[in-house]
Write a structure and sequence with these properties.
By secondary structure, the protein is α+β, with helices and mostly antiparallel strands. The chain has 2 domains: 191 residues, no CATH class; 139 residues, Alpha-Beta Plaits. The chain is 65% helix and 9% strand.
């Protein structure tokens, strides 16, 4: 519910990379406006001090202007600039007014920490340097006149406020960075999945199969599967129907192998299987069952669909020779009348 409301308020989905920045900006506006509100009350009621009261009120209402640009105008960069500038100016004014009293110098740390996050490292660094030069010059010219300042309750309040703000900014920065890395990792996984998946059948594609075979650490049996007379299917029923036949065939092949076997599309109407099974007799039973299952499947066309299978052993060090042996076994199955399998023992 809260996330949905924030998505509407920010104008971006929660999956968008900018959502977390806007969330941080929104939280910062609320927190800092609350701080300005508290200190406005403090300087008006508890310890009447007109200069800082005016400054705190300006900061308080400036936060509302920033919120307007964030939530209404949907311009987070403008809102961030307003928030950062008002925080820098008010804290600088506070230092000018109070010098080393009331823990005023601690507020100088707001600008470099928040500036890099809100404005980016370039503009944040420029503003931080300008702010540092101003504060350094003021301190250098005034420090000889400063007297030791007692640690009063207001000093503790100021210290706590600065510490909490820095903690929140650091938390948001690190969590945003971690989230960005997580999103990048998830995107890379999706891209890798797309790069190794056949778009039509959702099986593994030739790139994946090649990599798996070339990087195999043990010998495996591999089978090439070709749809018999598939050109007639395309010519008679159209390529759309031919695609449906390939999709259904992919499902049939997967249902006839073990989960640890890899089924892929080699290209066109050719498929390939990398078997985990090492027992040749059991593999022959699998190939027979595969031929029967395909022949008995209703592919919603007015003619039966059958496959020819060529099986060969594969060793990564002899990859090309093994693939040629598998192709030859497939050719032999075609020559034997199709809808059958053949095994090559030569590599």
């Amino acid at each position: 519910m809260v996330i949905r409301y924030l998505e509407q308020a920010f104008g971006v989905a929660s999956s968008h990379p900018d959502f977390r920045f806007r969330g941080f900006l929104f939280s910062a506006l609320i927190l800092i406006s609350s701080g300005f509100g508290f200190f406005s009350f403090y300087n008006a009621v508890i310890d009447f001090y007109p200069p800082m009261l005016i400054a705190d009120l300006i900061g308080f209402f400036s936060c509302f202007i920033g919120g307007y640009y964030l939530l209404v105008k949907k311009q987070p960069k403008v809102a961030a600039a307003i928030l950062q500038l008002i925080v820098t100016l008010i804290t600088f004014l506070f230092i000018l007014v109070d010098g080393n009293e009331e823990f005023a110098l601690a507020f100088a740390f707001f600008t470099p920490v928040m500036g890099a996050f809100l404005l980016g490292y370039k503009f944040g660094s420029i503003l931080s340097v300008i702010n540092f030069v101003g504060i350094f010059y003021f301190c250098f010219t005034q420090m000889d006149t400063w007297q030791p300042a007692p640690f009063l309750p207001i000093n503790l309040i100021h210290f706590s406020f600065v510490y909490i703000i820095l903690l929140i900014v650091s938390f948001y920065y690190d969590s945003s960075r971690s989230k960005a890395y997580q999103m990048l990792a998830e995107a890379n996984v999706k891209l890798q999945e797309l790069a190794t998946t056949d778009a039509l059948t959702k099986l593994r594609n030739r790139r994946y199969i090649d990599d798996a075979l070339l990087n195999a650490t043990s010998d495996r049996y591999i089978a090439m599967i070709d749809v018999d007379d598939f050109k007639k299917v395309n010519d008679q029923f159209g390529h759309d129907q031919g695609d449906k036949v390939l999709i259904e065939l992919a499902n049939v092949l997967k249902s006839n192998v073990d989960p640890q076997d890899v089924v892929g599309r080699w290209g066109g109407e050719e498929f390939i299987i990398i078997f985990a099974e090492q027992n040749l007799a059991r593999l022959e039973e699998t190939l027979k069952q595969m031929n029967q299952s395909v022949a008995n499947t209703n592919f919603a066309i007015e003619q039966p669909v059958t496959i020819s299978i060529g099986l060969a052993s594969h060793n990564a060090s002899k990859h090309r020779e093994c693939v040629r042996a598998m192709d030859q076994a497939l050719y032999n199955a075609k020559a034997c009348g199709k809808n059958t399998y053949s095994i090559s023992f030569a590599v």
